């Protein structure tokens, strides 16, 4: 008889409930457990720098190995990236507005672990200058993420050029292997996530009691509202440009939406979404194959919104004031994280740690974000998957590859290759 085993997601949800209950009951004594949560966060921080560097470098270097011409043409590629970036910017901007208005992290009263540097006093020119490190090793030791990313991009470009000239991919292979090993380290660390989250939430609940539940609900509520608004907006933009009836879209989205909501995985929903883009929305097969594949990797408007809300949540929870420049940097990082550069398992813990470290924000509130991430993942994936189909329609329409008869159910086609 097989042993019953709880998934990591279920374990984390249990840890959230038990941690809040335990902290509320025992009060301030729960603070004695905080060091356990701190160790969990440090284990993640320990790997973040190496993960970011190897992810960025390998992503740029890989372009040289796959330097084949796009048979679909420059216009299809350009339009695909345009609409992906358009939706991502809309989602991240809306997330910022909603989090600023609702202020989900307010009232947490979390003590500051890291103190953000006052970039406002440095001035714009000095802030930008500090994005470039004079010593990358000192930046790595200090966890200065912006200079690390700048260096990684330049190193990736240099590696790309080297591969094109020499054909030698040994350095790229080494970096990719290092990236995979680092991901395995993070996966190992995430196995103790329930213990770390229990300790962190027990400490927070012991300080402020059941009031900790409010911010978690507001965080999810903002994300739900934001996803709904972006979906409605993109549907009507698509209807206007493609000259279609938007009332028919909800039913066409149904199958891919159910899979996205229940699995919280764009990769698992991809086959269904691709099939529906062709058979229900009328996107020509070759266009759908390209746009949906790129969308699965880069089309993460839901994630962009979630990451921006994370930043505001952590700022408000700690009372740290971020300058306008720091907020812009944070939004830029949130957008970049969604464009396929950094992919991590169970990503919220690493992403939240990365953003907090980059902006000098306390990390205690990360436990709340991780604790509700499965629910947040439902909303993120729903928007990511459905928006990929929308982008595919918009791109197909721009090159006269959208079959209105298929969309209007007057004609049937098969996604199977002929």
What keyword list fits this structure?
single chain, mainly alpha, about 0% strand
Topology overview:
Layout: H1 8-26, H2 34-65, H3 74-102, H4 119-122, H5 124-129, H6 136-142, H7 145-166, H8 170-190, H9 193-208, H10 213-242, H11 249-263, H12 266-279, H13 285-298, H14 301-318, H15 324-338, H16 348-359, H17 366-371, H18 373-398, H19 404-407
Helix pairs in contact: 1-9, 2-7, 2-8, 2-9, 2-16, 3-10, 3-13, 3-14, 3-15, 3-18, 10-14, 10-18, 11-12, 11-18, 12-13, 12-18, 13-18, 14-15, 14-16, 14-18, 15-16
Structure description:
Helix content is 74%, strand content 0%. The chain has 418 residues and is an all-alpha fold. The chain is globular. The termini are far apart.
- The succession of helices and strands, N to C, reads HHHHHHHHHHHHHHHHHHH
Form type: globular
Question: Approximately how much helix is present in the residues?
Answer: over 70%
Structural class: mainly alpha
Ranges where pLDDT stays below 50 over 5 or more residues in a row are 68-72, 112-123, 341-345
The rounded distance between the terminal residues' Cα atoms is 46 Å
In short:
By secondary structure, this protein is mostly helical.
């Amino acid at each position: 008889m097989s042993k019953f085993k709880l998934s990591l997601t279920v374990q984390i949800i249990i840890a959230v409930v038990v941690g809040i209950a335990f902290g509320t009951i025992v009060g301030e004594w729960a603070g004695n457990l905080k060091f356990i949560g701190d160790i969990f966060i440090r284990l993640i921080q320990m790997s973040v720098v190496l993960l970011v560097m190897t992810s960025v470098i390998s992503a740029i270097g890989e372009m040289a190995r796959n330097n084949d011409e796009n048979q679909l043409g420059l216009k299809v590629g350009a339009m695909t990236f345009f609409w992906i970036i358009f939706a991502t910017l809309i989602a991240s901007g809306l997330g910022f507005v909603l989090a600023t208005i609702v202020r989900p992290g307010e009232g947490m009263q979390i003590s500051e672990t890291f103190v953000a540097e006052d970039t406002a006093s440095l001035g714009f020119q000095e802030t930008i200058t500090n994005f470039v490190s004079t010593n990358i090793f000192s930046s790595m030791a200090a966890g200065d993420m912006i200079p690390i990313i700048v260096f990684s991009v330049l190193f990736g470009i240099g590696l790309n050029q080297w591969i094109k000239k020499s054909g030698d991919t040994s350095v790229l292979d080494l970096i990719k292997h290092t990236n995979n090993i680092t991901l395995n380290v993070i996966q190992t660390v995430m196995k103790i996530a329930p213990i770390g989250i229990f300790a962190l939430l027990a400490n927070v609940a012991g300080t402020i009691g059941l009031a900790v539940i409010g911010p978690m609900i507001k965080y999810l509520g903002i994300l739900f509202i934001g996803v709904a608004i972006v979906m409605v907006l993109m549907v009507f933009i698509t209807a206007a440009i493609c000259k279609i009836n938007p009332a028919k879209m909800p039913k066409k989205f149904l199958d891919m939406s159910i899979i996205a909501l229940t699995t919280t995985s764009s990769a698992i929903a991809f086959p269904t979404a691709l099939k529906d883009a062709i058979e229900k929305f009328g996107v020509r097969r070759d266009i759908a194959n390209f746009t949906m594949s790129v969308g699965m990797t880069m089309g993460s408007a839901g994630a962009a919104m979630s990451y921006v809300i994370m930043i505001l949540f952590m700022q408000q929870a700690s009372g740290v004031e971020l300058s306008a420049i720091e907020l812009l940097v944070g939004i830029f990082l949130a957008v970049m994280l969604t464009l396929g550069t950094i992919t991590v398992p169970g990503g919220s813990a690493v992403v939240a740690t990365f953003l907090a470290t980059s902006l000098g924000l306390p990390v205690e509130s990360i436990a709340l974000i991780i604790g509700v991430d499965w629910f947040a993942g439902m909303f993120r994936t729903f928007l990511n998957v459905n928006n990929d189909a929308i982008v595919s329609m918009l791109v197909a329409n721009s090159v006269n590859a959208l079959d209105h008869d298929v969309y209007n159910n007057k004609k049937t086609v098969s996604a199977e290759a002929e």
